[in-house]
Write a structure and sequence with these properties.
By secondary structure, the chain is mostly helical. About 80% of the residues lie in helices and about 0% in strands. It folds into 2 domains: about 45 residues, no CATH class; about 190 residues, MetI-like (MetI-like fold), CATH 1.10.3720. The model has no long low-confidence stretch (mean pLDDT about 80).
Length: about 325
Amino acid sequence: MWRFILIRFFKAFFQLLLTSLIAFLIVKSAPGDPIASLVGGREFMTDHDYQRVAHNLGLDRPIALQYGTWLVNIFQGDWGHSIRDGRFVSTTILECINATLILIGISCFFMIGIAVFVGCWAGLRARTNIDYIISSLSLISSATPAFWLGLLLILLFSVSLNWFPSSGQLPIGSDGALSDYLVHLTLPVSCIVLTHIGPYIRLVRGSVQDVLTTDYYRAAQARGLPKLVLIKNYILPNALTPFTVWIGLTFPLLVGGTFIVEWVFGWPGIGRLFLQVSMARDYPMIMGIVIATSVLVIIGNLLADFLVLWLNPRLRRKTSSTNDND
């Protein structure tokens, strides 16, 4: 077990290193000039001023040297300064990532709960009207773009009905009351859940259907066990294993979808910050956000792997026996 955990962390470290290298090369290859964007255009700077600013920012060095310097500074805890406004990259990201984690955490809580309940309900009532309705709504959810649904929710519930605010995390002049947070979270969370929950419901439904056809479930059913016992001890543990794996695999898509939702609803998270600094070609801030997001995704995948081991005793015993044989 411990060897499995160490191997997963070792692989995660190299994944993070490879991601940083690819992101650095893409950022450097992207069109645009961060120095010229500081003053609105290259024509507003003399050649001497341009070279001086480039030297101060270290942008006149070879790309390999720039990446090596950045990597060494990252290991030393120095994430650099923003080219746009000089703010510390680490401080800015920490301020924004808290808002993103709140949005993702609450969305995942509702999405997992609804997917498990509705998916089990549809799986236990296969080929009924309820199953057909749930499956149709799941397909619609999978095909709905987050930005389109977000704009539709704003138009309906903010503009027409005036029930919820259209953007922001707190109203101006608010003292940070919990009710204000919840009101501003309603539309972004609803948008994320409604546009991502479809595949999860279909996966749970299919997994439940597979369990119902197994020999061990039929044997338990023949013993006259109550329905709740069958669901708790036989259906859920076996149906949730592929569901948990799928959550880990699709977690990057959930994070990417959250970025779009943050922009649409003006949520002050790391996704909205990423879109802002990308337009300004703020290289240090872009790289900091890429690393922070990659760490977030890797942690989500690791948690999914450990949760699968916890849900599936057979896999846990297999992993332990493999390590013992080695």
